[in-house]
Design a protein that fits this description.
It contains 9 helices and 18 strands. 48% of the residues are buried. The strands form 4 sheets. The protein has a 6-stranded antiparallel β-sheet with strand order 6-5-18-15-8-9. 29% of the residues lie in helices and 35% in strands. It has 2 domains: 6-114, Probable inorganic polyphosphate/atp-NAD kinase, domain 1 (Rossmann fold, 3-Layer(aba) Sandwich); 130-285, Tumour Suppressor Smad4, CATH 2.60.200.40. The protein has helices spanning 18-31, 46-54, 67-76, 94-98, 105-113, 139-146, 149-155, 158-170, 228-240; strands at 6-11, 35-40, 60-65, 84-88, 116-125, 130-131, 134-138, 174-180, 183-189, 191-195, 199-200, 205-206, 218-223, 249-254, 256-262, 266-269, 272-276, 279-292. The radius of gyration is 19 Å and the shape is globular. The two termini are 22 Å apart. It is of the alpha+beta class and 299 residues long.
Length: 299
């Protein structure tokens, strides 16, 4: 990888830890001898605009904010580059955790400057937005919706666990119709997740060992527990690292998807709430150019 001498850092000032983290990052770039220009976002979608307009001529673009800010920039630079380094500044920091990026900004900057470029598949939604981690309907979307701004400010990442437990216990079921590469799949579920990563949160939760971030294929994970005991069993196996073979979990692989639900359900993409179903999803193989620490990420 070409040494990074000049970088652009796009900061979401509204992110949970952005104010203090911005100063840490600036000092870390200076200590490494890297010239870093800093731009602040002002509204949703602004990070992508800033990246497209200002990335040319730099060796890398860094994001400091939540996963939403990172995905905007990754999607905007997927065709033109340069590579993107994700610095942890939000509540979940799922992308940073999944890539093994230190959650301390002062450690993350040098780790990425001395790191390597990795290619990941990128998801494209029907409305033109991108995603890296996955798109979900059901429990995980309810978890995102239930973690209020006040909860995230007070409890940080734990706010999602608190909200997720409440959503999981309710077991709100819905009918789904999933078309994957032209084949129709129907059934009933409490959660449907179109996944790009086999594990998330630094390996804490495993969705499926067969799911890889660089194979040009996404897997739809359909979770259909019949009761709370089933739900706890599935969650326990996800924590243990092997949910394959569980009677309440179904996988559907493909490159082109349409996800419909009856009734219509709200959806989330990489921790950001979308509108309601239906959703159209396309895999863009290897389109995301990311910086990662030298220890290669594992799905």
């Amino acid at each position: 990888m070409t040494p990074i001498r000049r970088a652009l850092m796009i900061v979401n000032p509204a992110a949970r830890s952005a104010p203090g983290a911005r100063e840490e990052a600036t000092r870390a770039f200076a200590a490494a001898g890297v010239t870093c220009d800093v731009l602040l976002t002002e509204r949703p979608g602004h990070a992508a605009e800033l990246a497209r307009a200002n990335a040319a001529g730099g060796d890398a673009v860094f994001t400091l904010g939540g996963d939403g800010t990172a995905v905007e920039v990754i999607g905007a630079l997927s065709e033109s580059g340069p590579p993107v380094g994700v610095l942890p500044g939000g509540t979940g920091n799922v992308i940073a955790r999944s890539l093994g990026i230190p959650l301390s900004v002062s450690r993350a900057v040098p780790a990425l400057l001395a790191g390597q470029e990795t290619r990941m598949d990128l998801g494209l939604l029907g409305d033109g937005r991108h995603f890296v981690i996955g798109v979900g309907v059901g429990v995980d979307a309810d978890m995102i919706a239930g973690a209020s701004y006040a909860m995230k400010q007070r409890f940080g990442f734990l706010a999602y666990f608190m909200s997720g437990i409440g959503a999981g216990i309710k077991l709100n079921r819905f009918r789904y119709r999933i078309t994957a590469d032209g084949a129709l799949h129907e059934g009933e579920a409490v959660s449907v997740l179109v996944a790009n990563l086999g594990s998330i949160l630094g390996g804490l939760i495993t969705l499926g060992r067969q799911i890889r971030h660089d194979d040009g294929v996404f897997h739809v994970c359909v979770f259909s527990p019949s009761n709370v005991l089933d739900a706890f069993r599935v969650f326990g196996r996800m924590l243990a690292g092997d949910v394959s073979g569980d009677r309440s979990v179904t996988y559907i692989a493909g490159r082109q998807f349409r996800v419909e639900t009856i009734p219509a359900r709200r959806a989330q993409s990489d921790g950001e709430l979308l509108g309601n179903t239906p959703l159209d999803i396309t895999v863009l193989p290897g389109a995301a150019r990311l910086l990662a620490p030298r220890a290669a990420p594992k799905d």
